[in-house]
Design a protein that fits this description.
Number of domains: 1
Mean pLDDT: 90
Strand content: 25-35%
Oligomer: single chain
CATH class: Mainly Beta
Strand order of the largest sheet: 1-11-10-9-8
Largest sheet: 5 strands, antiparallel
CATH architecture: 8 Propeller
Radius of gyration: 22 Å
Length: about 600
């Protein structure tokens, strides 16, 4: 474990009366732990986040990761009257806004590019504070992920954010002042940093590093003391134990990539953190069908492109499942969804990956590997495998790539499923999820072993429509999360890249790639309302309540690597869509 450098900043509250009022209100909302100072969202409050639908306390609303709002003031009968209540335009919108907002006691917090954090009044949008970290430009600009930031965490009076240059910062939620700043990823690991949101579990802040496309070791996931910023543990997804190292021929784990670039999930029943793991490096390996013994990284390449189950207290591995042994396509499992579902006395966790397959695991972590209960396919045009065994998770009929041109590999590198979240409606037992249908021609190259921190793709590629289709396309469907059986499906001309939101009001909100913000009927998929937000979406959407009014908040902004491919696939409106701005737009009934 590397030593962490921690800076502490003094905290001041300009008006004592205002601070007391803020603390009292927050304690009324959350604080029933007498051992904690007033006004804190502590570990106990997070356990009950799903009981507080007026707020949105964590990335997926609660540890159940349903990404679902129990509010129903806005519903199928009145959604046609939805109007813009207020909006906020941050500076620094380079490459769009990909943030998930949080709401704590009526205050909305969200991030823009380069880990800027904004705090606004949730009812009016009135400015409260802004925090902008000073980044190490050499490190931050040295990664293809800069300046992404996809979200924050709230607990213990702080807002927590990761940075592209490998730091985690705690910000006082009342004042916007820095509390601590920890350089978590060592400088020797260069281009590894954080773009995904942290997850707070009890007194630990858990966050995974990005950079699977970069050579180097070892794809870390960290547990950090939420109060002090000290690194408590580190779990390496590559080379962290003998089982992992033995699965990388020729010591290739030393440049193996890995990591966990999106937020994970927490099972309160077994006290287990689930984290999706990223692709190995290089993305594309010239070993082909002889991948077990040949290529740049011969072997299964544990624990990349799958799921690890970790003890949140110690960082020790409890169990795992590698969804794609020796991932040859960059269809990793780092998609940040672990949907907790209880049915017929069984506890399931539902996890999609980029390949378009959705894995249903038994949450009994005494099984190693994790026990598969089912695997179902969201995609329509995938051909990288013929199927996945629904009982064992084994890949059937792999299409391993050969040196030279490989035509029409489906899906393309960006995946049939991207990092945007779906939504599970526990009342209707439906899981709403967006999918993408597009493919790529891949020119695979035989490359030498890279130096550390080198971008290491191993191929070049161009995007195409799926065979038999004139254009790429997308869809939003409602499915049983365990069986995958579809209740309805709506095809979209442009695959949605933003997250979905289901609500108790019988609605599914779909932020579209072309700027249209749709609301579908949760039972039928019928479109009930649309609003043109003027710019593509590839961030989060949430709902919350302040006073007697329910709000829906969505971010706009275009410019990620995935969205950049749309101008190649579709031309306009994406060829002219700006990539240097975005907004937070908040809707309500009149």
């Amino acid at each position: 474990m590397k030593l962490s450098k921690i800076k502490r900043a003094g905290m001041a509250c300009g008006l004592a009366v205002a601070c007391v009022a803020w603390a009292g209100a927050a304690r009324a909302a959350f604080g029933d732990d007498p051992s904690q100072p007033p006004g804190e969202v502590d570990g106990q409050a997070l356990l009950r986040a799903d009981e507080k639908p007026n707020d949105w306390l964590m990335y997926h609303q609660s540890y159940k990761a349903h990404h679902f709002s129990a509010l129903d003031q806005i519903n199928t009968t009145n959604v046609k009257d939805l109007r813009v209540a207020w909006l906020h335009t941050p500076n620094g919108g380079k490459r769009g806004i990909q943030s998930f907002p949080l709401v704590v006691n009526g205050i909305i917090y969200y991030t823009a590019a380069s880990s800027q954090v904004w705090a606004l009044d949730g009812a009016t949008g009135a400015f409260l504070w802004k925090f902008e970290p000073k980044l190490d430009d050499d490190r931050a600009q040295g990664t293809i992920f800069n300046p992404y930031n996809r979200g924050i965490a709230a607990a213990y009076g702080n807002i927590y954010v990761g940075t592209a240059d490998g730091r985690v910062i705690a910000i006082d939620a009342k004042t916007g002042k820095e509390v601590w700043d920890t350089q978590v990823v060592g400088t020797e690991e260069s281009n590894k940093g954080f773009t995904g949101a942290p997850l707070v579990v009890k007194d630990k802040l858990i966050i995974g590093a990005n950079g699977g496309e970069y050579s180097g070791c070892c794809g870390p996931i960290y547990g950090i003391d939420a109060r002090t910023g000290k690194v408590a543990w580190q779990f390496d997804t590559v080379g962290g134990d003998e089982r992992s190292r033995a699965s990388w021929g020729n010591d290739s784990w030393k440049h193996g990539g890995g990591g966990g670039w999106m937020v994970g999930g927490y099972d309160t029943v077994t006290d287990t953190v689930y984290w999706g793991t990223a692709n190995p490096s290089p993305d594309y390996d010239w070993g082909g069908a002889n991948w077990k013994t040949e290529g740049a990284r011969p072997g299964e390449n544990l624990y990349t492109s799958g799921v690890v189950a970790i003890d949140p207290n110690t960082g020790k591995l409890k169990s795992y499942f590698q969804e794609l042994p020796h991932d040859a396509w960059d269809f990793d499992g780092a998609v940040g969804e672990f949907v907790m579902v209880e049915r017929d006395g069984k506890n399931y966790v539902v996890h999609p990956n980029k390949g378009g397959y959705v894995y249903v695991y038994n949450r009994d972590v005494n099984n190693t590997p994790l026990k598969i209960e089912n695997v179902w396919h969201l995609g329509k045009t995938s051909n990288f495998v013929k199927n996945v065994d629904p009982k064992t998770g084994e890949l059937i009929g792999r299409r391993d790539l050969n040196v030279g041109m490989n035509k029409a590999v489906c899906p393309a590198i960006d995946g049939a499923i991207s990092w945007n979240a779906g939504s599970y409606d526990p009342d209707r037992n439906l899981y709403y999820k967006a999918g993408m249908e597009f493919c790529a021609d891949i020119d695979l190259q035989k490359v030498d072993a890279p130096t550390s921190a080198q971008l290491h793709l191993g191929a070049s590629y161009s995007f195409i429509a799926p065979p038999g289709h004139d254009k790429a396309f997308g869809h939003v469907s409602a499915r049983d999360p365990i069986s995958g059986q579809a209740a309805w499906e709506v095809e979209y001309k442009y695959p949605p890249l933003a997250s979905l939101l289901g609500t108790k009001g019988g609605l599914v909100f779909v932020p579209g790639a072309d700027g249209w913000f749709d609301t579908l009927d949760a039972k039928t998929g019928q479109k009930l309302w649309s609003h043109n937000n003027g710019l593509g979406h590839h961030g989060g959407v949430i709902s919350y309540k302040v006073g007697e009014k329910q709000y829906v908040a969505v971010v706009t902004g275009w410019g990620s690597h995935v969205s950049g491919d749309y101008k190649v696939l579709f031309g306009e409106p994406f060829a002219s869509m700006p990539t240097n701005n975005g907004q937070l737009i908040v809707f309500s009934l009149p």
